[in-house]
Structures are given as C-alpha cells and as structure tokens.
C-alpha cells in the first residue's frame, strides 16, 4: 500500500489489545505506520466468547499472515440446536467455521504485532487527559451498562462435541464447540438468577440446571473442566447494538456487540479493523486529516454493519424469551425457518461459490 506523504508520518495509538485492536495494529505495521497498543491486562488470557468464526474472519487472519489450519484447529461444518434435551434442528453451514480459542488467538496476534515492530504496552491504561488526541482508536470492548444478562464460559476435555451445538434454555442459551488441543468451549448467555450461588468452576453447571439445561449439565459433570479457563462477564446489553455516533474511531465490541448466537463476534472485530485500515493508513502517512479519517471510518462501518446488527437484534428475542423460543421451535418443526437466509443476513457476504442453500 503506497501513500504520498504530504505532512509527515503520524503515529496511531490504539486503546485496547483485544482481537480488533491487535489486528488493526498488525495491519498498520504492515503498511509502515507507527503504532502503539495500550492493553490493561496481559497475555495469554481467556475471555467469554463462543470461540469460533462463522463469518469471514479467517480470511482476514490469513491476509495478515496468520494461519490456523486443521487438524490442530477444527472446522465445524454443521450446526445442531437442542431444546429440552432434544435436537430440533440440524443444518449444514454455508461455510465451515473455525474453532479457535481467544487464549490462542490473542497471544498469536500479540506476538505477530510485536514481531512487526509494534509497541504493545501490557498492564497499561489510558490516562485521562481531557480531549482525546488525534490518531486515537478505541478498541476497549463493550460499553458497561446495567443489564440482567451475564455470560459464563469454560473449557472442558472428555466432552463429546459435534459441529456447533446450541442449547436453548429458559431465558438462556449455550453454545458448545470444539477448539484446539482437544478442548471443548462451553459458553452461555444467562438471565441473572439471584438464587444461584456456586464457586467459580461450578457456576456454569449451576446456571445450566437453573435454566432447564440439566442434560447438558450432566454431560459437563462427566467431563473435566480446566479451572483456569473459567470466566464470566456481566453488563451485557444488545439494544441498541450498533452506533457510530461519538467517540471517534471505535472497533469491535466498542463499536457494537452483536448478539452472540451469530458466532460472528470475532469475525466482526477483524472486519471492523480491516474496514478502518485504509483510512487510518492515509492518516498515518500524512495524507488525510484526523476529522476526515473519523468521518470516513464511521461511514464505512455504518454501510457495512448496520443491516447485520438490525437482523441479529430482531432474531435475538426468539432465543431468550419463552414465547419466542416456542415460536422458533414451531418454525423449525414446520420447516418454515429460513436458516440460510438468516445466516446470510447476520454475517459478512459469502463468496459467490459458497452461496448454497
């Protein structure tokens, strides 16, 4: 990527070293832009995440020189949905989904970013200095809000997993998918239940039973949990799920949290960074002012993501509300659920050769 430098090189500072922040930093370094990433935590780490890429994310990783190939990293080709312990849907995915934990992905991105000459400051928070300086990109994750919802996740070994499994419970749903090293990621979104109390590694089975997912909880009891992988997250809110107003350039979950049932969160983080890339390269090479850069990134994100978030937000209640779940089961049983259409509307466009029903 070549740019004439009219006003001198300018650095870019990224707040947040998650998927979006590290990937953008890596791509900017490949384009010759000076980049510093500030991350409050460290690596490697576990995050509440479905840990599979059902969208276009793997193509972006390969573009940046990162490959996660089988058999070390599984490819999921089907999705199976369960309700009350019974399978209600089995479909072939329009394209295979990559099973990849955040533990491995974040560390791989951090290593690649440093190897490309980027500056990564772990254990460092942004200092409050009033106005945000030009060249600052925020990739700090979802905005904290009061919410009745919470996420729980853990890795298990010795747990049978086939494709992408979704278990629908009472005001809850849980995804089960294999990742690397023979592990299976179990990640769920639950309505908070004040009466449920359990220590860390027992919290997930406890919430499963409280949500009517006792069969899945029994399966976990027969498997072995990695205690270090357990983590939780609160303050989940999905409406409004997408906004580009205010806050300068935002990426990933800071831009908007797409409902997790899509499996598109990691892909969307990468896609948001790749979409912002040419505009930030122009800024970093001194060919575009910061206000123009911000405006162009926002316009590109709006054009790319608004419809996807709208579809996902409309579908989400059918998974979490009892009446919606009943309607969903009825649609599946009667053959009226347009699975492929809904998949296309909630994910990045598929290459023409993969647009199959």
Kindly summarize this structure in a few lines.
The protein is an alpha/beta fold. The protein is built from eleven helices and 13 strands.
Can you walk me through this structure?
- There is one protein chain.
- Helix content is 35%, strand content 24%.
- With 357 residues, the chain is an alpha/beta fold.
- The strands form two sheets. Strands 3-5-4-9-10-11-8-12 form an eight-stranded mixed sheet. Strands 6-2-1-7-13 form a five-stranded parallel sheet.
- A hairpin with a 2-residue loop joins strand 4 (75-83) and strand 5 (86-99).
- The chain is globular.
- The two termini are 37 Å apart.
- The 3D shape can be described as globular
User: SS-based structural class?
Assistant: alpha/beta
Number of strands: 13
Number of helices: 11
Q: Low-confidence runs (pLDDT<50, min 5 residues)?
A: 1-6, 351-357
Strand order of the largest sheet: 3-5-4-9-10-11-8-12
- Please report which band the strand proportion falls in: under 5%, 5-15%, 15-25%, 25-35%, 35-45% or over 45%: 15-25%
Query: Radius of gyration from the CA trace?
Result: 20 Å
**Euclidean distance between termini CA atoms:** 37 Å
Which bin fits the share of residues in helices?
25-40%
Nearest-integer average pLDDT: 88
Q: What is the chain-wise order of helices and strands?
A: EHEEHEEHEEEEEEHHEEHHHHHH
List keywords for this structure.
357 residues; alpha/beta; 8-stranded mixed β-sheet; 5-stranded parallel β-sheet; 11 helices; 13 strands; globular; disordered N terminus
């Amino acid at each position: 990527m070549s740019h004439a430098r009219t006003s001198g090189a300018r650095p870019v500072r990224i707040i947040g070293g998650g998927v979006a922040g590290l990937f953008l930093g890596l791509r900017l370094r490949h384009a010759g832009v000076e980049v510093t990433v500030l991350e409050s935590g460290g690596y490697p780490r576990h995050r509440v995440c479905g840990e599979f890429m059902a969208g276009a994310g793997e193509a972006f990783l390969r573009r940046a020189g990162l490959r996660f190939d089988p058999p070390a990293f599984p490819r999921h080709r089907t999705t199976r949905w369960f309700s009350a312990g019974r399978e209600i849907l089995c479909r072939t995915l329009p394209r295979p989904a990559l099973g990849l934990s955040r533990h491995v992905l974040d560390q791989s991105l951090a290593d690649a970013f440093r190897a490309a000459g980027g500056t990564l400051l772990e254990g460092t928070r942004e200092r409050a200095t009033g106005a945000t300086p030009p060249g600052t990109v925020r990739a700090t994750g979802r905005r904290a809000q009061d919410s009745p919802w919470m996420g729980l996740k853990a890795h298990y070994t010795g747990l049978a997993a086939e494709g992408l499994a979704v278990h629908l419970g009472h005001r809850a749903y849980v995804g089960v998918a294999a990742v690397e090293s023979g592990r299976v990621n179990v990640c769920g979104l639950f309505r908070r239940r004040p009466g449920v109390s359990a220590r860390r590694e027992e919290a997930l089975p406890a919430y499963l039973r409280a949500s009517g997912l006792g069969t899945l909880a029994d399966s976990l009891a027969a498997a072995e949990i990695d205690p270090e992988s357990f983590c939780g997250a609160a303050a989940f809110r999905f409406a409004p799920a997408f906004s580009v107003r205010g806050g300068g350039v935002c990426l990933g979950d800071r831009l908007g949290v797409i409902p997790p049932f899509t499996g598109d969160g990691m892909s969307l983080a990468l896609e948001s960074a790749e979409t912002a890339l040419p505009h930030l390269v122009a800024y970093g090479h001194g060919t575009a002012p910061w206000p123009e850069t911000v405006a162009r990134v926002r316009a590109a994100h709006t054009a790319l993501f608004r419809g996807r978030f709208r579809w996902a937000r409309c579908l989400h209640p059918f998974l979490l509300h009892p009446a919606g779940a009943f309607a969903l089961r009825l649609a599946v049983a009667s053959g009226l659920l347009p699975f492929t259409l809904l998949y296309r509307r909630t994910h990045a466009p598929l290459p023409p050769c993969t647009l199959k029903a």
